[in-house]
Design brief:
Length: about 250
């Protein structure tokens, strides 16, 4: 199901946005404005990915009795990225930027990535492009081809999560969009693509967890919690033989 969604969703989005660009360019430009639909879709996927990742980390702890550091850190990262995307609700709540952010943020907004850009004059979109290209495209491709020659990754494949190979085209589309061809605002679509990829990646790992294909340490079996007694069992404890006696 997740694979089918991936195969159809991202090409459809590319066709949709390209069609809007050629048919109604003002509306296309409106889509990528601050606090408009694309930004809020990105925030929503980042936010729910963070919650989903934290839940998956908790489930792994419950079943295998260890903290999966990747999902814990990924939950923190996606939640941080989500609130950074909307500048921590600055425009929603009408919060004025302090003197520090007015001086150092390249967009006078209360967030870390624009402040980083203003201080170091390095575009965070370029960092994101390279990181997603390596993590979302190159590593899954090498893993699929059986050419994963990084020993650390081989030894820690249960802990350092690489996106599934069927997300490679989606990550590649997102990376291309981060180049800002056409109008200079396509990075907003790229960020949206990445956020959807993140959500689908966690959903896929949740499927692997449920089917027992991953996350168990060597020789480890899931911890089976004791099931709750049924109503009949509870009643039989309180009134022995009352409900367990055979019917006539």
């Amino acid at each position: 199901m997740i694979k089918k969604i991936t195969y159809y969703l991202f090409p459809s989005l590319v066709i949709l946005f390209a069609s809007i660009y050629f048919v109604d360019r003002p509306f296309y430009r409106l889509l990528v404005n601050e606090d408009y639909i694309v930004e809020w879709i990105t925030f929503a996927f980042l936010f729910f990915t963070g919650i989903y990742s934290a839940i998956l980390a908790f489930k792994i702890k419950q079943s295998y009795n260890y903290y999966h550091w990747f999902f814990i850190l990924f939950a923190g990262f996606t939640l941080l990225a989500g609130f950074e995307e909307i500048s921590w609700g600055q425009r929603v709540f009408g919060i004025e930027s302090t003197e520090f952010f007015q001086k150092h943020s390249d967009q006078n907004e209360i967030n870390l990535h624009n402040t980083f850009q203003g201080i170091f004059h390095i575009k965070t979109k370029h960092i994101a492009l390279l990181a997603m290209l390596v993590w979302g495209v190159i590593l899954p491709w090498r893993q699929q081809k059986g050419k994963q020659d990084f020993k650390w990754l081989k030894d820690h494949d249960r802990h350092f999560i690489i996106p599934p190979h069927f997300l490679i085209p989606a990550f590649l589309m997102g990376a291309i969009l981060m180049l800002d061809f056409q109008t200079g605002y396509e990075e907003e679509f790229g960020e949206m693509f990445f956020s959807i990829c993140f959500f689908l990646m966690i959903a896929w790992n949740n499927v692997l967890f449920k089917t027992g294909q991953k996350f168990a340490l060597d020789g480890q079996k899931p911890i089976v919690s004791a099931s709750r007694p049924s109503f009949r069992e509870k009643a039989d404890i309180l009134i022995p033989g009352k409900l367990s006696s055979p019917r006539i």
